[in-house]
Amino acid sequence: MRDITIVGASLAGLTTARSLREQGFDGRIVVIGDEEHAPYDRPPLSKEFLAGTSSEDDIGLTEPDDSGLGVEWRLGRTAEALDTGERAVLLDDGERITTDGVVLATGARARTLPDSVPEGVHTLRTLDDARALRKELVPGARLIVIGAGFIGAEIASTAVGLGCEVDIVEAAAAPLQRALGTDMGSVCGRLHARNGVRMHLRAGLAELIGEFRVTAVRLEDGRELPADVVVVGIGAQPNVEWLADSGIPLHNGVLTDERGLTEVPGVAAVGDCANSHRAYTAESMRLEHWTNALQQPAAAVAALLGREHAAPAHHAVPYFWSDQYGHQIQFAGHRTADCTIQVEEGDLDSGDFLALYVDGAGAPVGVLGIDRPRAFGRWRRRLAGRL
Amino acid sequence: MIFVGELADLPPGESARVQGEAPIAVFNVDGELFAIDDTCTHQDASLSDGWLEGCAVECPLHAACFDLRTGRPSGPPAKKPVRTHQVSVDDGLVYVLESTSVDAAVEGVS
Fold first, then answer.
1. Which is the most buried residue in A14, A190, A345, B29, by most CB within 10 A?
2. Measured between beta carbons, which residues in chain B are less than 8 angstroms from residue A55?
3. Do A39 and A9 contact (CB within 8 A), yes or no?
4. Collapsing DSSP states into helix, strand and coil, what is residue A210?
């Protein structure tokens, strides 16, 4: 393999380029990124960067060493099609890049509301999104967050710190329900109330009010919440539409085997856009986790180059974290439908605890900790022992 | 010199945290003691809570790995090294001599 094209220039794309060099690939690497910016880290966008304590330099992912990667960057360019026959990537400006291998690392984008929205309504996924939102979160601003998932929770937390008044509107019965389940979602969601954020649960959004600029949010029960700023945090969807006619199997992202290879020879997928078979859950899952974007490329690169790759066992355990109101929430593993909760340390009421998710057969399959990093790290590795 | 504690209270695989000018983490790796700055250079996290793997510690939050001998990170997300400090044991008592700055040779590669 002499030439490899990486489509996507965020954490997974950059890590793929680094992994290629680390594993001895000395051919040509082209990296395509649809943003103008050099690779940057996204977790701080809803936290330190939004709060103004981290600069654009701070969140940059490239290091002086990376100049030695010898990567040909195509930034501000969008891949529009993949010709799997020739393994050619077609760009929006007409360039056609033909290579021996292609790594798809196109990530996911923020889901948006179906209608056009007035000014003052934001999503948060990119650096440009964060720049725009940061200008609006001034002291006293009334912020409505639609969606009480992790991104919404982190933005609420940051906004409170900036002196905003915050309401969260959530359709489910509990915040963080999809990731943590109703009970643990509710426990973690108490952080909002403790910090003066109002939570509106089982509340559907009827419409955004405001002719040019948003002035309020109307809920399905008729209530109207006044707003200066609205953030829509209703999840993300993989950037795979451009592959629709390529013959690459797609289902909630790019389908791959455990190593990240697609059915099409020489084409791999990594990071948020990859729906990969996972040994830990024995099923395919798309993981929108930073850790996955950091760890998956090494395996995919090894598979592409026909090399052996042995990752530490705990890398197979899905892991994510969130920082809210000065607390660290960590979760590893997964949640099965028949899970029950077992508190290992601390207590739920104090909000400082470590809890296990135990499946119907009595085996721990997931661990959740708030401000318990040491015990959490031990459990994360014990969970890997299931494999 | 900063007093850490009794060696008997710091068995292999364990760590301790002490306060110097900055917080310092002391590790016992199979009988050999190492000390580095306790705060991960990527984001506020305590490395003494991290996972020991040979002569490296993995940050408990975001998996940045630091070499205990040099303070260098092995890859992202951390970019900057942590300071390393001298550890001494006298009559079963552990002490740390805090360095003034990051080793210039190490800083050069960060």
1. A14
2. none
3. yes
4. coil
Asked if the C-beta of A330 comes within 8 angstroms of chain B's C-beta atoms, the answer is yes
Per CATH, the homologous superfamily of domain A3-109+236-315 is FAD/NAD(P)-binding domain (3.50.50.60)
Which phi and psi angles does A375 have, rounded to 5°? -65, -35
pLDDT per residue as tens digits for the range A83-111: 999 999 999 999 999 999 999 999 999 99
**Helix axis angle, A150-161 relative to A182-194, nearest 10°?**
10
Residues B106 and B71 sit within 8 Å (Cβ to Cβ):
yes
Separation CA A122–CA A137 (nearest Å): 11
Best of B44, B52, B62 to substitute, by most chain A Cβ atoms within 10 angstroms, is B62
The two tokens of residue B7 are 């060696």
Query: Nearest CA to CA, how far is B105 from chain A (Å)?
Result: 15
The shortest CB-CB distance from B76 to any of A294, A328, A374 is to: A294
Domain ranges of chain A: 3-109+236-315, 112-232, 326-385
ipTM value: 0.83
Q: Residue B107: inside a domain, yes or no?
A: no
- Given this model, what pLDDT does residue B105 score? 44
- pLDDT of res. B101: 65
